[in-house]
From TrEMBL:
Keywords: Apoplast, Secreted, Signal
Highest taxon of source: Eukaryota
Functional description taken from the UniProt entry: Dirigent proteins impart stereoselectivity on the phenoxy radical-coupling reaction, yielding optically active lignans from two molecules of coniferyl alcohol in the biosynthesis of lignans, flavonolignans, and alkaloids and thus plays a central role in plant secondary metabolism.
InterPro entries cross-referenced by the UniProt entry: Allene_oxi_cyc_Dirigent, Dirigent
KW Signal (keyword) present: yes
GO CC, one annotated term: apoplast
UniProt name for this protein: Dirigent protein
Taxonomic source organism: Phaseolus angularis
């Protein structure tokens, strides 16, 4: 009798959990395109080296250099459009030849229907490639349990201001 009640309760709990996760995931788009506005020099820098090897140049191609990132995220490539969130995290030059960078990035939404939610991105970015693909490993809020991949592509770069616009295409399973 007790095992029958436990079994019934377990089935009820499992079906409620599956229903909750299914409902949360159904409202998500399959693809989202966002734009990161990145500045690497000057007083408004959004990427900054925080540590590196002693006696070495702290650059994007120097093994061991770690950068902190806090890029504005927008829905259009125009750098003056509305900010919908921030891309916050760490970049680590992880290949001894400087070719690859380990990325741990949170897309933290502060505006629109996803405010308070985040998407977690992690993986190796091959710096010389025009299109770089990383894993979407999880999320919070409306993106809880999300999986997929993130495609990064630099769409514009201004050498005078050290400003880049990076297209971020998120594809969810």
């Amino acid at each position: 009798m007790a095992s029958s009640k436990f079994f019934s309760f377990s089935i009820l709990l499992l079906s409620t959990t599956v229903l909750y996760v299914t409902e949360a995931q159904e409202s998500l788009p399959k693809t989202m395109v966002l734009y990161l506005q990145e500045t690497v020099k000057g007083p408004n820098s959004t990427v900054s080296p925080i540590i590196g090897l002693t006696g070495k140049d702290w650059s994007f191609h120097q093994f061991g250099t770690i950068f902190a990132v806090d890029d504005p995220v927008m829905v259009s490539p125009n750098q003056f459009s509305s900010v919908v969130g921030r891309a916050q995290g760490l970049l680590v030059v992880s290949a001894q030849d400087g070719a690859n960078m380990f990325v741990s990035l949170s897309i933290v939404f502060t505006n629109l229907q996803y405010s308070g939610s985040s998407i977690e991105i992690q993986g190796v970015s091959r710096q010389s490639e025009k299109y770089r693909e990383l894993s979407v490993v999880s999320g919070t809020g409306k993106f809880r349990f999300v999986k997929g991949y993130a495609g990064f592509q630099t769409t514009s770069y201004d050498a005078q201001t050290s400003h880049s616009t990076i297209s971020l295409t998120l594809t969810f399973q």
